[in-house]
Amino acid sequence: MSASNTLPVACNRDCGAACSLVAERGPAGTVRIRNNPRNHSLKIPCARGIHAAESRNAPDRLTRPLVRSGRRGSGSFAETDWDNALSIVARRLGAIIDTDGPEAIVSFAGSGACRGVLHNTNLLTARFLNLLGPVTWLKGSYSFQAAAFVTPFAFGRQPAGFDVRTLLETRFVILWGANISDTRFGNETEQVMRHIRQHGGEVIVIDPRRTRTAKTLGTEWIPIRPGTDSAAMLAIAWVLFSEGLVDSDFVATHVHGADEVRNHVLGAADGVPKTPEWAESICGIPASRLLELARRYGRARPAALIPGYSIQRAYGGEEASRMAIALQALTGNAGRAGGTPGVNLWFPPASPPGPRVAAFESSQPTGDSIPKATWPEAILARSDSSQRLRAAYVCGSNYLNQGSDATRSIAAFDTLDFVVCNELFLTPTARHADVVLPATHFLEREDVVTAEDNYLYYSAQVFEPAGEARDDFDIFADLSRRLGLGDAFDEGLDKASWLERIIAESAVGAAGKDAFRDSGIFDGGDHQRYGLAPFISDPEAHPLDTPSGRIEISSESYAETGFPAWPAFRPAPPSDGYPLMLVSPHSRFRINSTGDNIAWVRERDPVRLWMHPADAEARTIADGAEVDVRSETGTMRVTVSVTEEIMPGVVSCIQGAWMAEDPSKGGRADGSVNRVTPLEPTRPSIGTRTHSVMVEISPSPLPGMPLPDGA
Ligand SMILES: Nc1nc2c(c(=O)[nH]1)N[C@H]1C(S)=C(S)[C@@H](COP(=O)(O)OP(=O)(O)OC[C@H]3O[C@@H](n4cnc5c(=O)[nH]c(N)nc54)[C@H](O)[C@@H]3O)O[C@H]1N2
Ligand SMILES: Nc1nc2c(c(=O)[nH]1)N[C@H]1C(S)=C(S)[C@@H](COP(=O)(O)OP(=O)(O)OC[C@H]3O[C@@H](n4cnc5c(=O)[nH]c(N)nc54)[C@H](O)[C@@H]3O)O[C@H]1N2
Ligand SMILES: [Mo]
């Protein structure tokens, strides 16, 4: 650990940003974190990075290995030493491999520390488990499964991402289900939007909630019913086609499938023109407002349409992602400076490459996969067969809390013989493990951190590990040796040597390493990257690797999935008796469930169910009351906030609250929303659809009473 009192660090969390910060050590072990003064002026870190020491120093950090001593999930554990804990893990995993093969082990790696080059919970877990053989892994993404699935049909493998600085001169932006002032999508986006607004631009926010983005950056808030974005977008396309607002020159040279989309939009195919009136009854936006928005959008040159991930974490979310791309292609904005291709701002599957950085190598596990969105079903389906899955390795994730249908998730874990979890805290998932191994916080280790934009960051070690906590790297290296794999995991090099090597082989280079360690920042230079640029400038010389070589807004290949070639609105299946729609967005102060146990976070973002006054009155529910939220899947109890910042007919509860220990035994209103979200995915991508859940809400019978069955 360096002796200096001011050290560069970089936030290693999963928001698409990666912020360079400096940590100043003060008297008596105090540490103050602030923005790195050498950052570009557009870069603003968020409260989670500035307050990272709150989680490092949290009183409930795990400091010793734990071995379960009571029923699974009961929270009864005995502390033990590392030698004993690791020998149990090695013995249990080894025995399962001997009898059932590595296939019986499931990797539950996750995004807890996902931006580190060395200390990366996804990569380290994959590297270790790969050494055991073809283990089973979870395929797909909770974040952007539908978007990642459909985007290659439109753009092929060409990166379609872009730097947000390309939008500085843009004066018309639609943030479609994108709450960027909370969820960030890079650390420049908020400032770029502020700049656009200050220079007279329009920033339109389409969201069922009047978010902080709508309030502080938006010039207009348009509420929309969740899961109906593709209907509103189709109506906008209807106006574009009907009023001559399609950029026919761009379409003629760069776009495939515009005729099919037009036929669908005008109703030639099914006899239903997708007019603003048609859309109004579905999405709740008045037809006149849609018409007027479409005209302004169609005439603005350039216009940036920026979807959030929310619109595709919904039933039929694939088609919302496809329509966002189609609109930007039809208006020529995909090819115009300051326009966008209609993909998300933070889009790992399609980001243009950043600075070269050597990897601590690890491929995806080579065994079979099960879809991430529906993993409990896959485990339960096999539980009585010869292919029974027997063990889970959890690292950097809180799957029991974050996957849909918590009851099924717990039931699935209960069929496993052995669960091991590397964690900083006793999360609901860790509580269901047999062995819990205390892991370090990112401020307790040195790393190189990657961003989605064109930078690399250096993160120094600021604190000693809490108690006996160890780096995941060391845990896996030790386990590998105990499993007879020698130094296959670390190749005989320690962490410091790996980092030297990684930095030397990166764009930083051996010559630049001292400056990098000193400033914390390596600038890749070009911040006007636009992944589609070569194709846009010369589509004949640089065709996309789609079948037509062009942007395919209707796709014959997509039709092979069983859904229409063109994007079409797909309503969520009816759910009798559950009239309200629930969304579960991401909290400003947490990262998913990370931070829910931190007092600092809880004070700032208490878990509340937002409900419109009209919906509350109809159910005689008062502000501050405890309510039961019921879906076909389950029940959760939560405190209500009656507010006009959500549209009628929709309720909202931020995701990520930890499930209380045993809610059936009495009443803590934990607001853990995945008690009510269904496992039935959106298709064909098999993605989660946590933003289109039908619920009914009633006052809790008596505060503190047990929840009804199915909770
Ligand atoms: N502060 C913070 N930032 C984060 C995260 C975090 O947990 N906290 N998580 C990170 C991760 S892992 C991800 S994947 C991203 C998630 O990014 P998103 O998926 O974009 O984030 P959400 O908060 O789920 O939704 C964004 C907004 O969409 C609205 N919304 C919900 N459903 C719909 C809909 O059907 N249509 C429309 N138009 N709007 C809808 C919500 O009210 C919310 O305000 O954020 C990343 N950034
Ligand atoms: N209802 C609903 N559910 C959702 C969503 C939604 O919008 N609505 N969003 C979904 C999305 S987009 C995502 S990405 C998932 C995220 O779900 P998860 O991937 O489970 O992410 P987190 O909840 O942040 O849990 C990460 C855990 O990693 C731990 N951790 C942090 N650093 C380290 C480390 O260095 N080592 C180890 N071993 N552990 C570490 C943290 O303590 C934390 O418990 O949730 C999904 N769930
Ligand atoms: Mo995510």
Task: Summarize this structure briefly.
The chain has 25 helices and 26 strands.
Describe the structure.
Helices cover 30% and strands 16% of the residues. The protein is of the alpha/beta class and 711 residues long. The protein has an 8-stranded mixed beta sheet with strand order 5-4-16-15-14-6-7-13. α9 crosses α13. The radius of gyration is 25 Å and the shape is globular.
Descriptive labels:
25 helices; binds ligand MGD; 8-stranded mixed sheet; globular
Percent range of helical residues: 25-40%
Q: State the strand order across the main sheet.
A: 5-4-16-15-14-6-7-13
Question: Average pLDDT across residues?
Answer: 94
Give me the oligomer status: single chain
Radius of gyration: 25 Å
Number of strands: 26
In this entry the ligands are: ligand MGD, molybdenum atom
Described by strand count, sense and barrel closure, the largest sheet is:
8 strands, mixed
Strand content: 15-25%
Shape: globular
Structural class: alpha/beta
Q: Helix count, per DSSP? A: 25
Are there runs of 5+ residues with pLDDT below 50, and where?
663-667
Distance between the termini: 48 Å
Ordered list of secondary-structure elements with their pairings:
Layout: E1 6-10, E2 20-25, E3 31-35, H1 47-50, H2 52-56, E4 66-68, E5 77-79, H3 82-100, E6 105-109, H4 121-132, E7 136-139, H5 145-155, E8 172-176, H6 180-183, H7 189-198, E9 202-206, H8 212-216, E10 220-222, H9 229-242, H10 248-254, E11 255-256, H11 258-266, H12 276-283, H13 287-299, E12 304-307, H14 317-330, E13 369-371, H15 375-382, E14 391-395, H16 399-402, H17 406-414, E15 418-423, H18 428-431, E16 435-438, E17 447-450, E18 455-459, H19 472-482, H20 495-504, H21 509-519, E19 521-523, H22 533-537, E20 551-552, H23 556-559, E21 580-583, H24 599-604, E22 609-611, H25 613-618, E23 626-630, E24 635-642, E25 650-653, E26 693-699
Parallel strand pairs: 6-7, 6-14, 7-13, 8-9, 8-12, 9-10, 11-20, 14-15, 15-16, 21-25, 22-24
Antiparallel strand pairs: 1-2, 2-3, 4-5, 4-16, 17-18, 18-19, 21-26, 22-25, 23-24, 23-26
Helix pairs in contact: 3-19, 4-19, 5-14, 9-12, 9-13, 9-14, 12-13, 15-17
The chain binds ligand MGD (2 copies) and molybdenum atom.
